[in-house]
Amino acid sequence: AWGIGGMLCMIAVIALDGGFIIASTLLFSMTARAFGKRIGVKSILIGLTLSTLASLFFTKLIMLTLPFGPIESFLYGGL
Fold it and tell me: Using CA atoms, how far apart are residues 71 and 40, in angstroms rounded to an integer?
């Protein structure tokens, strides 16, 4: 249920212009919870770090456009 809920939350965040990084961080945290980890600062920071790295990889290295939100606008200057 946590995994499915994470996917649904990710879809909702992207649909509401929250951006890829926030949506992926939320998905990571909820998936970690599905595997028994508590949702805490550690899982949120790990998710935020991995999501940011994935966003940088997709956006800068392979030029794939991901959904933009406030964090992406800050990082990329509103590409």
Answer: 20
